[in-house]
């Protein structure tokens, strides 16, 4: 339910490299903009199911390894998000909170997360599937919303399938084929 992957505190999981994501150029630019200047956020990536929204947001773990990044979804219990000294909102302070399918989360929970982002100074990065329930208008108005389109070019679609398969077979070997990841990370740190 929760990925607490602050560098050096827990086992490092493998995430699909940002630079290996095919297409989604507008969403990539928006994500980089928010990583460099969090005041631009919060950011909401929306589109059809299975277009790579979550994969793209998860790549943040690779791009900012020294900054806290936590991932939750609509099933994460409120007590884990908000209560206690070990709550997600306290642990993510100064970092980024990734929320999967925020539009099917209880609206009051989403509103509390938005309020907590100001109190604990973290930036919210979220996804939603357009075919699911609409996002509460008050919440939607707070986001920079970017649509992630489906890859329509046949050759690009084949490349997406090939890359996903290769990543699943050997994440480290696959990721090593994308050295731009480290350059992008250094540029974000230096901004």
* First-to-last CA distance: 32 Å
Number of strands: 6
pLDDT < 50 runs, ≥5 residues: 1-12
Helix content: 40-55%
User: Mind describing the biggest β-sheet?
Assistant: 6 strands, mixed
Q: What characteristic shape results from the CA principal axes?
A: globular
Can you tell me about this structure?
By secondary structure, this protein is an alpha/beta fold. 42% of the residues lie in helices and 15% in strands. It has ten helices and six strands; from the N terminus they run βαβααβααβαβαβααα. It has a six-stranded mixed sheet, with helices on both faces. β4, α6 and β5 form a beta-alpha-beta unit. The radius of gyration is 16 Å and the shape is globular. The two termini are 32 Å apart. The N terminus is likely disordered.
């Amino acid at each position: 339910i929760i990925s607490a992957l602050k560098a050096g505190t827990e086992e490092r999981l493998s995430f699909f490299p940002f630079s290996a994501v095919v297409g989604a150029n507008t969403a990539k630019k928006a994500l980089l903009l928010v990583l460099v200047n969090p005041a631009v956020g919060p950011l909401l990536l929306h589109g059809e199911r299975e277009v790579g929204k979550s994969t793209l947001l998860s790549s943040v773990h690779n791009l900012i390894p020294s900054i806290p990044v936590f991932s939750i979804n609509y099933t994460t219990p409120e007590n884990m998000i908000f209560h206690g000294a070990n709550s997600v909102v306290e642990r993510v302070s100064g970092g980024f909170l990734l929320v999967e399918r925020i539009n099917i989360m209880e609206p009051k929970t989403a509103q509390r997360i938005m309020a907590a982002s100001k109190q604990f100074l973290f930036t919210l990065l979220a996804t939603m599937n357009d075919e699911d329930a609409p996002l509460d208008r008050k919440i939607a108005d707070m986001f920079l919303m970017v649509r992630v389109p489906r890859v329509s070019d046949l050759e690009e679609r084949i490349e997406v399938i090939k890359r996903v398969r290769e990543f699943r077979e050997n994440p480290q070997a696959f990721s090593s084929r994308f050295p731009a990841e480290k350059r992008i990370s250094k540029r974000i740190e230096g901004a």
